[in-house]
């Protein structure tokens, strides 16, 4: 689950590092192309410039390849749409966005070339406490697992099972 040598989980900051089996340009497309982003995270239009908006549409019921039910606590959020602000963007290596208009911090995604692979580092700073860290940590951890699977050409049979495992791992890491 968590790689404690590379991943950092605190009540106010999360850092996840992944080595992905795709070149940086491909991974970048999975960050900025609304359709590709919707396969592992949340789709939506994006204005790729500092100050631009990134729309996020929560369609997590579409992230699983199999027909699996959405957990009751997340069902009310399915279909919800909102926008975040792009703080910095330097294709194809850096994307920084606000979260909850900055109330829940800022998310930085850095991509580095490692031969024909990509090192992705996602850092979410400014999280307002333990509950937020568990919520965001479980989300980022499971979404990155889905991204990794999609880039490898593997399926994501049950996103919600990934999410439940991630939620448990993050809660344990926080102690």
UniProtKB/TrEMBL annotation:
Pfam families named among the record's database cross-references: AHSA1
Domain Activator of Hsp90 ATPase homologue 1/2-like C-terminal: 21-151
Protein family (similarity comment): Belongs to the AHA1 family.
Matching InterPro entries: ASHA1/2-like_C (IPR013538), START-like_dom_sf (IPR023393)
Protein name, as recorded: ATPase
């Amino acid at each position: 689950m968590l790689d404690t040598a590379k991943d950092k989980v605190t009540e106010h900051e999360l850092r996840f590092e992944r080595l992905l089996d795709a070149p940086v340009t491909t991974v970048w497309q999975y960050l900025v192309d609304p359709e590709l982003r919707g396969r592992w995270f949340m789709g939506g239009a994006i204005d790729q410039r500092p100050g631009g908006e990134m729309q996020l549409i929560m369609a997590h019921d579409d992230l699983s390849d199999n027909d699996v039910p959405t957990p009751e606590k997340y069902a009310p959020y399915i279909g919800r749409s909102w926008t975040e602000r792009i703080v910095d963007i330097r294709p194809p290596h850096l994307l920084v966005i606000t979260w909850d208009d900055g109330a829940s911090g800022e998310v930085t995604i850095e991509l580095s070339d490692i031969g024909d692979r990509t090192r992705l580092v996602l850092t979410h700073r400014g999280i307002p406490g333990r509950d937020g860290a568990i919520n965001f940590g479980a989300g980022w951890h499971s979404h990155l697992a889905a991204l990794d699977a999609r880039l490898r050409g593997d399926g994501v049979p049950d996103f919600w099972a990934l999410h439940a495992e991630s939620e448990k791992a993050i809660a344990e890491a926080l102690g």
